Amino acid sequence: MFMSVVNRDFRQAVEPVATARWTKNVDTGCDAPLGHGDLGNGEADLCFLVTRNALSGTGVLGCDPVVLPLDGWALRLDEVAFTVGAVAHRHTHSGSGWRHLVAGTLRIEAEHDTTVMSTGDSWFEPAQSPVRAVALQERGDTRFVRCMVIPLADVGQSTFKLQSPKDADLPRLQITHRHFDHVVQVDAL
Asked: Pfam families this protein is in (predicted)?
């Protein structure tokens, strides 16, 4: 299986296994989501598609293979908002998925490289891959939309796991706004 993130320019005829859509709303601050999440096909600023085949071409911002949990899975769509100076200390998630930066600048420190993401950039994080994120803007919020394939055991639960117990006492200034966890049942994969 593959997960792709696509924008409004994507026009290919595909039969996705699952689709999450996100459309930007008016920014009312970090305490509220910046957009609206939904399931299924249709117009949206961003779509995250789980497909049997890799996607490429116009409108495809990224595509990577995903390993689906054997005991079932759900599609999670959420947003993470960082206030000025916020840091997501080194952590992992139990699910793989795409992130797309919709506001601000964010330094992503992965296991083998460090990348500065700007508004409009997308990146893929495999499950259980350690990462640290630092908001770099001097004013305003930094935000990304995230779609992950998560194990059923994590439906309704946080997938965030700190890598160092000493980081548990550090401030956590980022705010997560969950749009949905959607259990996906597929026959004959």
From this structure: Cupin_2 (PF07883)
Of the candidates 91, 89, 93, 131, the residue with the CA atom closest to the CA atom of residue 112: 131
**Domain at 177, CATH number:** 2.60.120.10
Q: Cα(178)–Cα(189) distance, rounded to whole angstroms? A: 27
Helix, strand or coil, per DSSP, at residue 168: helix
The two structure tokens encoding residue 6: 């696509």
Q: Which two tokens stand for residue 72?
A: 């079932």
Query: pLDDT for 162-176, tens place per residue?
Result: 988 888 888 888 899
- Contact by Cβ (8 Å): 145, 100: yes
Q: Residue 88 domain-assigned? A: yes
Collapse the DSSP code of 36 into the 3-class scheme (helix H, G, I; strand E, B; otherwise coil) and give the result.
strand
- What's the number of domains the chain is made of? 1
Contacts of 51 (CB under 8 A, 6+ apart): 1, 2, 3, 4, 14, 15, 16, 17
Burial status of residue 178 (CB atoms within 10 A of its CB: 0-12, 13-18, 19 or more): middle
Distances (CA, A) of 7 to 76, 139, 163: 18, 27, 33
Query: What pLDDT digit, counting tens, does each position of 144-156 carry?
Result: 999 999 999 999 9
Q: Which amino acid would we find at residue 177?
A: H
What angle (nearest 5°) sits at the alpha carbon of residue 98, between those of residues 35 and 185? 90
